[in-house]
Structure formats: structure tokens, C-alpha cells
Design a protein that fits this description.
The structure is a homodimer of 307-residue chains. Chain A is 11% helix and 23% strand. Chain A has 307 residues and is α+β, with helices and mostly antiparallel strands. In chain A, strands 14-4-5-12-11-13-3-2-15 form a nine-stranded antiparallel β-sheet. In chain A, strands 6-10-9-8-7 form a five-stranded antiparallel β-sheet, with no helix packed on it. The first copy, chain A, is globular. The termini of chain A are far apart. The interface between A and B is large, with 76 and 76 residues.
Chain lengths: 307, 307
């Protein structure tokens, strides 16, 4: 046995091997995968097509859940731009290792070359860096966090909360989608977007308007060749990765949609699966960590089961 | 100005734009890049060729610093295997999104197909999950960490320390190189290796023998197409990414080496640059984070300056 597989590091993907057990041993604890597989239908929620973007790349579809509860004006503007086909034929023009990919109009700042915005697009929006904690159900993790007083989940998004300030925000975990801006806090409108592809750059938290999260297809974004210029830009336009289209799922014919379900972060299955990862004890892991980082918590996605 | 560049999120790559300053304003704090650029020669150390691996891929060279202070027996075995050309012509056979790439002999467990180990390779090693804190200079970060009592740097590697247990270990940050194993703690010999390519999987800390860190060329590993099978394995052998060779730098003719210098983690420049990132205040960042995660601390690398 030469090949170390880190087998059980991946409880979601592969069940722990069933070993003959001594009758004296206590029963094995359930793995995260076993817990999720056994979750009742009520623990899952359907991804809402009216709140979902399909980013069509030559290699396939990236699926994004939008976060109108955090950035309502940006999300509304993004929907307007998607309906108007703004990103169709534009590119991913930046890929910086261990940080972000960024897409939109690479020539947006060049006079005469910028692609016009679709009718109805707002060209000035307020900064939406945080939201009020009021009215936001917070599925809190017990784990400490160096960046924020409290961390957990709101609307299925990884989030942090500052109860004293009465504010909450989406945290910059892997797969999170944010609106790029210039120095002025209100300089983003959602036309230029970035996705985190590396170690969570939490220093960006509550400094940009975060608009959603990739729920499927991250591998298509994370493997885009890095740009050689500073900050991951490409030298030549032809090096940029083309975007065929970005569409709102509700605008796509039903037969062409990708139905998905997400495990509710307030479900017992989610809580139990997270605990199974926080304190793994199995044939591989001998010392439970006793901790999980917000950005290490898996947010399970599945195709809806056949009816 | 439509394109949000997250400009100063990248102080290492791009200096903050010099804006006309009001004479009443206090002087700008130095950015991490400015601090590093001004570091004296004594703040830098040369990468030791006797302790450096070159992984030659078709797309270029990945440079790895080994960690004999943490896993002396694994590192010695890896040097033996590199000298004997063990990995030459083998592959990266696993690429799992937001987790690891893994390489070695994909057929190592198939009877009759496994590549023989070079003469002198040891086929059984002790687990080297932790080292004693004794004799290990620890450049401690003041920041809290959820996974370990203390975090910082030892031998230029991101590390954690448990003073009560008298143990230290390399943490699974982006770019860290570990020895894959099966369930038995002592089942790794360094033939099958993995590199972290996503959010730090710190739950692996002190559960595997960590043998070093990629110091240059991570983008060549992080962009390898993900394997479609569970855990990121490929379906067909031809999908695997070929390795031309892995050589010890000291075995490579001097003219073919890539000289590099790393900023010492005990230098004032490193401490100051980390503080500049912990509490960024500039034209982009308006709220200092007051915190930095161990795995977000940049470990600067440069080509030696011309003499």
C-alpha cells in the first residue's frame, strides 16, 4: 500500500472503508457523508431560478446563487445586465493565483471601446458592504474566528456578524462572488465581478459589495491559467478566457436549466455533518481538531432526487 | 472608472497609487510592498540547493523548499528518490478542487506495474507528524488561531506550536507539501506527495508528515484540470499530468538552477510587512482588519539582486 490517499479527508466524496469491527468496540460515529445521505427531504432547499445565474463557459456551466438579502441593489442591477446580455462575449480578464478570477468588460475603461450597458442598468449604486442583522436568520457556528465576533450562515451564504454594530456580511470564502470597485466605496455597479479561488482573503470582508456565491462549477474558474501581469491580468486580449453568456436561470427554458438543491444551514443534518468534520474520529484521523473554520465548512449541493 | 481592480488588495504586486496629499494629512503608512522593497540584504536568505527540489513540468519549474527540521527521515528518503529519478516520467494523478494535487506512481499499488524505488530508498519510515519545540526558533504571530494554541513560522514554514505538549508542526497552508499515507500513521515514505491548492485544510495538521513548501510555481500546480472521479482522480491514464523530472537542485548544474531568496520570518521587514497587511489603511481599505490568518501571511520570494 504505497499510495496515501488521504482517503477520509474527503468524507463527502468517499465513505470510510467498512472494517471488521471488534464486538467490544463502540459503534463507529457517522461520517459527514453518511449524515448528509440520510438527511430528510425537508433539510434541502431548491435553488431559486429567479435568483440564480448561469455563467456559460466553453468548458461548461458555472452556477451562482445571488444574495439579494445582502446586496439588493447590486443584485437587481446584475439581473438587469444578465437579461440584457451584458456579459455575453466578454471575458475573464484576470486570474491571480491564490486570490481571485475577475470578469466583465476588459475594455470598460477605454473610451470608445466600452460595451454599452443594457437599458435600465444603473450606473451608480450605494456601497452594500454590510446589511443589518435585523430580520436575518443567523445559523451561528460555535467556532472562534479571528476576523469577526461571530461567524455562521445567512441565506445559505457564509457570513459574519457584529452584534454590537448590528451588522452582518458575507465572508470572502472560496467561491464567493463580489463586485469589483475602485477606491471610492460606491464605485461598483456589479458589471465587473470577482470570484475567490484561493485561501479566503478575509481582509476584503465588509470592504466590498458581495453579491453571491458559486454553488457548482468552481473547478472551471479555479483552473483558468493565471495571468502573467501584476494582479493576474493577461498581456494579450486573446489570452483572456471567453464567456459565452451569463443568464438568469429563470430566463432560460426549463429544459435547459440545471436543477439543484442545497442543504439548509439550519437543518440538523447540516449541524451534525459540520460536527462530524469538526471532530473527525475514524480510521484515518486519530486526533479530533475540535474546531472548524467557517471557510472550511462544506455547503452540500445535490441534484434533486428522482420523484 | 468601471473596472474595480481591488488594487491595493495586492500590495506586493502593485504599489498604491500616489495621490496628491493634503498638507494637513499625516504621512501615508508604508505599504507591505514598500517595506519589503526597502528590506536590507540581511533580511533575505538564500534558498539552499541541497534542500530544494525542482519539479519540472511541461509548463515550467515548480520550486520546493524541503523541511528537514520537521520530517528528517521523509526528507532524506525524498532526496534519495529524487537522486534516483523516481518521479521522472511519473504523473500528477489527482487534482481535487479546493483541496490538493497529488503525484507519484499512479500504479504504485498495482502488482507488477509499480515503478521500483531507487537503491537506498527506505520502504518503512516513522510517522513525522510533529517535532519537538526544543531547538526550533519560533517567529510567533500575535494573532489568534482556531486550530492551534500558537501560530507563526519555523524554518520559514508556516507552523503551529503547542507549548504544553512541547510539539510543533507545519500547518496545511496553500502550497504546503505533505506525504500521502493510508490509514496507518507510518504508511508514508514520501513517494506519493500532495500539495495544498485551496482553502487551508488545517484539519490535516499533525495527522500527516509534512515535508516542505512550494516557494515558486504554485500556479502550475493549481491550474491542473481537476480529476472527475471522487477525490479528484482521473478516469484515464492519459488525463494525468506528466512530470518530466523531480531533481534536487544541488544535483542540477549550477547554470540550470533558479537562485531564489526568501524574506526571513524573523526580520523586521517581515514583521512590519505583516503588520501592514494586518491593518491596511490606504485609499482602498477604510477599516483595518486588526487580524491576519497564518495562511494569509505572504512569504516573499525574489531573485537575488544583481551584484
Amino acid at each position: 500500500m504505497r499510495r496515501g490517499l488521504l482517503a477520509v479527508a474527503l468524507a463527502l466524496a468517499v465513505a470510510a472503508p467498512a472494517l471488521a469491527q471488534d464486538a467490544q468496540q463502540p459503534p463507529k460515529r457517522k461520517s459527514a457523508k453518511e449524515i448528509i445521505d440520510a438527511a430528510p427531504a425537508s433539510a434541502w432547499r431548491d435553488l431559486d431560478p429567479a435568483n440564480t445565474l448561469y455563467m456559460e463557459l466553453p468548458a461548461g456551466r458555472v452556477i451562482i446563487e445571488l444574495a439579494p438579502g445582502f446586496a439588493p441593489e447590486h443584485v437587481a442591477n446584475i439581473k438587469t445586465m444578465a437579461k440584457g446580455g451584458f456579459w455575453d462575449g466578454l471575458t475573464i480578464y484576470r486570474s491571480q493565483d491564490n486570490f481571485v478570477v475577475q470578469f466583465g468588460d476588459a475594455e470598460g475603461e477605454e473610451a470608445g471601446k466600452a460595451k454599452p450597458y443594457p437599458t435600465g442598468t444603473r450606473t451608480r449604486l450605494p456601497a452594500e458592504f454590510t446589511r443589518s442583522t435585523e430580520g436575518a436568520r443567523f445559523d451561528k457556528l460555535p467556532d472562534i474566528d479571528g476576523w469577526a465576533p461571530q461567524v455562521g450562515f445567512i441565506d445559505g451564504m457564509p457570513a459574519a456578524r457584529d452584534p454590537k454594530a448590528g451588522k452582518a456580511w458575507i465572508t470572502h470564502c472560496y467561491g464567493v462572488l463580489g463586485a469589483g470597485r475602485n477606491n471610492a466605496p460606491d464605485s461598483s455597479i456589479g458589471a465587473e465581478l470577482y470570484v475567490v479561488i484561493g485561501q479566503a482573503p478575509r481582509a476584503l470582508d465588509h470592504q466590498l459589495s458581495v453579491v453571491g456565491r458559486v454553488v457548482k462549477g468552481m473547478d472551471l474558474l479555479s483552473t483558468i491559467p493565471r495571468g502573467p501581469e501584476p494582479m493576474g491580468f493577461y498581456q494579450k486580449p486573446e489570452q483572456r478566457a471567453p464567456i459565452k453568456a451569463i443568464r438568469l436561470a429563470s430566463e432560460v427554458p426549463a429544459a435547459e436549466r440545471t436543477p439543484l438543491q442545497l442543504l439548509r444551514t439550519d437543518s440538523q443534518a447540516f449541524i451534525d455533518a459540520t460536527e462530524a468534520r469538526r471532530n473527525r474520529v475514524d480510521d484515518f484521523y486519530t486526533v479530533p481538531a475540535g474546531h472548524i473554520d467557517l471557510c472550511n465548512v462544506a455547503l452540500p449541493v445535490r441534484s434533486p432526487p428522482a420523484k
